[in-house]
Automatic annotation (TrEMBL):
Protein name: Peroxidase
GO CC list: extracellular region
Localization, UniProt: Secreted
Origin organism lineage: Eukaryota, Viridiplantae, Streptophyta, Embryophyta, Tracheophyta
EC category name: oxidoreductase
Length: 350
């Protein structure tokens, strides 16, 4: 049961405590005394934005993933460029791609009104992902809380750690293993590709010139190929958007896995999970495709595991006043210039 009076409708899979690193002191009721409304406030903001931007839950789940894979779930992705910070937002996998930074700031503004200086930006990213899953009809992720915010960002690590859409299975497994995530985590977390969008530029080679062959990727269904070519014509706009899931584009469900079984994975990295000959991932895809509960259980467990990567707890890091800047920077600036710099420095949602 949730420790706050906030009841999530559509609860599907609730997981008990999962192991995480021994020095971490995360717990689901971390804000029970200091900010009991935290879940409700996050829910209200994300729900409102999602009404006009149904893609936003997907974007927020991805933002959380891109934070956790780079020096841990510490909100380093939110830091803007300053004299001392080289922002991760311009790293290759993030640039003109991540969305939802302004939603995080909206949440922070509301939380600072209700419980000033209490809720970290790292936990806001976590809670935004939790709420997003529910809004997209996915599982209820009971994340433990108490993360603190980093004083640093690392663009080099963002370029290094975030997996690329042209990775083969060996490379995907390696990228997850670096984070302490196993093959089941890889397959379960890839299920997040059952909602949200992809820009054409990431699939053009699959459609027209796979690995320099001058032909499409043979692991792509030919009817689907034709449909995708209409949205992404050769030499056309690279930023046209394609739904990850042609059937339920804004729902977090097991369709991702049934799509893989019929060669309708959108990214090469998706289809690799099912089409790599003899791979141990095939049976996991089959298991998730045949039962939504199995998928939801594993997705929840793996999201919580990912949410425990490299967390700062206790006296480490800080609780940022503004998610885009470390506190020292905020203190150095007068309040007016902080506000305007923050606005301009944002990579806003498209
Ligand atoms: C396994 C390796 C992964 C690769 C190679 C990968 C790659 C990508 C790429 C290229 C995009 C499209 C970006 C764009 O068009 O600008 C994307 C979108 C997305 N990714 Fe992944 N991703 C991976 C794993 C994950 C994981 C683990 C999650 C979350 C748990 C995730 C969640 C998402 C979501 C929800 C979107 C859609 C976002 C939106 O519509 O704004 N991905 N991913």
């Amino acid at each position: 049961m949730r420790c706050f009076g906030f009841i999530v409708v559509g609860l599907v899979a609730v997981l008990g405590g999962l192991p995480f690193s021994s020095n971490a002191k995360l717990e689901p009721c971390f804000y029970k005394k200091t900010c009991p409304q935290v879940h409700f406030i996050v829910f209200k903001v994300v729900e409102k934005v999602s009404r006009t931007d149904p893609r936003m839950p997907a974007s927020l789940v991805r933002l959380f993933f891109h934070d956790c894979f780079v020096q841990g779930c510490d909100a380093s992705i939110l830091l803007n460029n300053t004299a001392t910070i080289v922002s991760e937002q311009q790293a290759l996998p993030n640039n003109n791609s991540i969305r939802g930074l302004d939603v995080v700031n909206q949440i922070k503004t509301e939380l600072e009104k209700a419980c000033p200086g209490v809720v970290s930006c790292a936990d806001i990213l976590t809670l935004a992902a939790e709420v997003s899953s529910v809004l997209a009809h996915g599982p209820y992720l009971k994340f433990p809380l108490g993360r603190r915010d980093s004083l640093t960002a690392n663009r080099t690590l963002a370029n290094q750690n975030l997996p690329a859409p042209f990775f083969n299975l060996t490379q995907l497994k390696a990228a997850f293993a670096v984070q302490g995530l196993d093959t089941t985590d890889l397959v379960a977390l890839s299920g997040a590709h059952s909602f949200g969008r992809v820009r054409c530029l990431f699939i053009l080679d699959r459609l027209y010139n796979f690995s320099g062959t001058g032909r499409p990727d043979p692991t792509l269904d030919t009817t689907y190929l034709k449909q995708l070519r209409q949205i992404c014509p050769q030499g056309g706009p690279p930023n046209n958007l394609v739904n990850f899931d042609p059937t339920t584009p804004d729902t977090l469900d097991k369709n991702y896995y049934s799509n893989l079984q019929v060669k309708k994975g959108l990214l090469q990295s998706d289809q690799e999970l099912f089409s790599t000959p003899g791979a141990d991932t095939i049976s996991i895809v089959n298991k998730f495709s045949s039962g939504q509960i199995a998928f939801f259980k594993s997705f929840s467990a793996s999201m919580i595991k990912m949410g425990n990567i490299g967390v700062l707890t206790g006296k480490k890091g800080e609780i940022r006043k503004q998610c885009n800047f470390v506190n020292k920077k905020s203190a150095e600036l007068d309040i007016g210039s902080v506000a305007s710099e923050s606005e301009e420095g944002l990579v806003s949602s498209i």
